[in-house]
Predict the 3D structure of the following.
Amino acid sequence: MCRVDGVSEHTATLIKLVPEICRAALREATPSGECYDSLNKIGKLLLRYYIGVSVETVYLVLLDNGYHLLDIVKVGEGSVNRVRFETRKLIEYALRPNVSMVVLAHNHPNGRATPSADDIATTAEVANLFRSVNVEFLEHLLVAGDRYEPLLSKTEGVFWQRGRTKAFYER
């Protein structure tokens, strides 16, 4: 970008920061304590976190037992087609005071909302992990562009839990 006439290194840096500044502004506009009792509400909230993100990134949404937002934490950042994260971090965040439910989200920067075999396997592994510490895993969302797809409800061998009612998916 610095090769363009009139664009200095400082200007190029500022332009590169615009997507992160927009994401930060949108995150700040999210009131803590807001009720996120449906997949639709959580999905729309998470879309804000992925604006302009060009690498796979994982977030964990922390909710209390009334579906009130406690926090959204970034737990991993990778490359254009892969992300790794420590499952220990997931448990540490999930065991924070007042957390009783969580939603995991990751993106596909290529814009395709089709889960990979690894995405499905990770969903099952994480579901079992949260079950082992008695934290409700409401959903694993795959965000691609301006769309999101639930993965947990489509993963075989994962038992239905009390927080994921039919109404959670329909509101």
In short: The longest helix spans residues 9-28. The CA atoms of residues 60 and 73 lie 5 Å apart. The two ends are 44 Å apart (CA to CA). Helices lie at 9-28, 39-49, 87-94, 117-132, 166-170.
